[in-house]
Design goal:
The complex is a heterodimer of chains A (183) and B (173).
Chain A (H helix, E strand, L loop, with lengths): L6 H14 L8 H11 L5 H13 L4 H44 L4 H23 L8 H15 L5 H21 L2
Helix pairs in contact in A: 1-2, 1-4, 3-4
Chain B lengths: L1 H14 L8 H12 L5 H13 L4 H44 L3 H30 L2 H17 L3 H14 L3
Chain lengths: 183, 173
């Protein structure tokens, strides 16, 4: 199999990635690795690791960020656009079909029952996700304080989430600068 | 005009999606349900359920869903591109730079502050959903069983969600 990257091949590969990554989040990193490092051999293990760690520090879906960066590494702007389109197309098409069916058939449809049935599990999955994120506050009083303050602002003071996020970012940067200066 | 508002909202949402997946829920709930009123809370829960059972990350799925509700197919395509605009630009222009320089400096400082905020965002989303789910005894029971299966047996969340969906079809929720 010819493995050299072309615009079309980048599109197809990221299309595959976009089709099989359910839910989102970290769970799909091994799948993306399988595709880009093992199957296509477009990236070395080390390059992939670097790209993922950079992708994690940017906003937006990891899958999209990784696809765009990988596309750019391989073929510049054309590769990046192919990566973007490939990674978002499956999600766009599937959700468009579901939302149009949901709008057409409405409250009494099986789709609606299916979605309603998922709600309790959804809540459980959220609580579980919360538990798996506990590492980000463990062992640091400052992080713990930020988390508690942010939760109270969001849930009880009704402060705009955008502001809370901006606050967290600004605080992090200030903290970083101060620590660099005094150490 | 509506298309413009839609794009603007999703560009902004796309800028703050840090920390993977669920942390964006609270932001979207605020912007799409409370501020804009484009969808109801009930529909928002549908969006979350859809995003868990279809390919693609939640912010993308929500953009497609809400875009369609507001302005049909055109709105949905536009919103979907809007939400990935900033991530695309950052990955394209900054990704390569960081790849070469490995200098994360300020970025890593920012993430230090954002990680606990991401946790708070997920907690706050769970807190807003709780009354909707736990008020019905049957749903509360399923939620408890689900928690047990997740914590005790490390059940695959996707499998759990889909099984509960089927349960919903069988009992016509």
């Amino acid at each position: 199999m010819d493995k050299s990257p072309s615009v079309f091949r980048i599109f197809l590969t990221t299309l595959r990635i976009g089709s099989f990554t359910f839910g989102g989040g970290w769970a799909m990193i091994p799948l993306i690795r399988e595709e880009l490092v093992k199957r296509r051999r477009w990236l070395s293990e080390e390059e992939f690791f670097d790209i993922v760690s950079i992708a994690q520090s940017f906003p937006g879906p990891i899958m999209v960020n990784v696809s765009v960066m990988c596309g750019r590494c391989l073929l510049g702007i054309r590769g990046a656009i192919a990566g973007l389109l490939g990674s978002i197309l499956p999600s766009l098409v599937v959700v468009l079909i579901i939302v149009s069916m949901l709008t057409k058939f409405g409250e009494r449809s099986y789709i609606k029952s299916f979605l309603r049935g998922m709600r309790p599990a959804l809540f459980a999955v959220l609580v579980y996700a919360l538990y798996s994120m506990r590492g980000s506050v463990r062992g640091s009083k400052v992080s713990m304080a930020i988390a508690i303050l942010a939760f109270l602002s969001l849930s009880f003071l009704g402060i705009n989430p955008f502001l809370v996020i901006a606050g967290g970012a600004v605080f992090g940067i200030l903290f970083y600068i101060l620590r660099e200066r005094f150490s | 005009m509506k298309l413009l508002e839609l794009s603007f909202s999703f560009v902004i949402i796309g800028m703050v999606g840090f920390g993977g997946g669920y942390s964006i829920l609270k932001v979207m709930m605020h912007e799409l349900v409370d501020v804009r009123g484009w969808i109801s809370l009930d529909e928002f829960l549908d969006v979350v359920a859809i995003s868990q059972s279809t390919p693609g990350p939640i912010a993308l799925n929500a953009a497609t869903f809400v875009g369609y509700k507001v302005e049909g197919v055109l709105g949905s395509v536009l919103a979907t591109f809007a939400v990935v605009l900033v991530p695309f630009l950052l990955s394209y222009f900054l990704g390569n730079y960081m790849f070469r320089n490995r200098d994360k400096g300020l970025f890593s400082g920012m993430l230090l502050g954002l990680r606990p905020v991401a946790l708070a965002l997920v907690a706050s989303a769970a807190y807003s959903f709780a009354p909707l789910i736990l008020l019905s005894p049957f749903q509360a029971f399923i939620a408890l069983v689900s928690l047990f299966l997740l914590f005790k047996f490390k059940l695959d969340p996707i499998l759990l969600l889909l099984s509960c969906g089927l349960l919903g079809v069988v009992f016509r929720f």
